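Q: Two folds, back to back.
A: First:
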Amino acid sequence: MKRFGWTIVLSLTVLLSIVLIQLSPFSTVVQAQSTLPSQVAASDRQVVHLKQGVDNLRATYMALNIANDLQNRGSNVALLLTMDGTQIADTRRSLNLQWKDKPQTLAALYDSFVAQGGQVKVCPDCPELGNTTVLRKGAQFTSGDDISRLLLASSNVIEF
């Protein structure tokens, strides 16, 4: 009889736990995420942070390529350029460079990203930018406060 009583108590506890989990706010978030795994919400903010310059062509190419791909898939993407990455926005730098046998140049990737509505945010305090005052089309200087707000509002930060 004692064993039967414990079985009932255990069964009721498990059943109650399942019901409570289904009613919890966490459960609805998990369910909502699992129903749309391949779609990107329109409010998704992705930040691709590039701190490598054209000296590291592989990292620069990958950052621009991924930023383009995310933008193509409907994400709201900002390319954050700091340290050597600010070279990408410098009009004195040539972006007519290709990574290995890839058909697109850095210039083509950059232009495509901007044409699709991608934002290019440039750290004004990075010494690698030198005394550049004219940025490429689509790029804009941003403040430290703007960078903080951008990072806090993003759902993902991808580092290069």
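A: Second:
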Amino acid sequence: MSETHNDPLARVMRRYLRRSGIIHLPVVYSTEEPVVFTQSVNDNVLGSFCSVTGTGGLFLAARVIRDLVDTDKDGWEKK
């Protein structure tokens, strides 16, 4: 989480986590700059592309599985 940028929500979350003593938290994020739309409020604009959010979920699931596999039955990290 500490490496995220270009995201106002992530900035708020980093600040909250830092105050709570949480420094390292693995996250999936995009390095893209936010896009500012010039369309009126009445125009229909999709907030996100559904396959992008699904792909993010798959990345998170892969990380959890990898972390579970890299530990022994007592939860200690394998060497």
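Q: And?
A: The mean pLDDT is 78.
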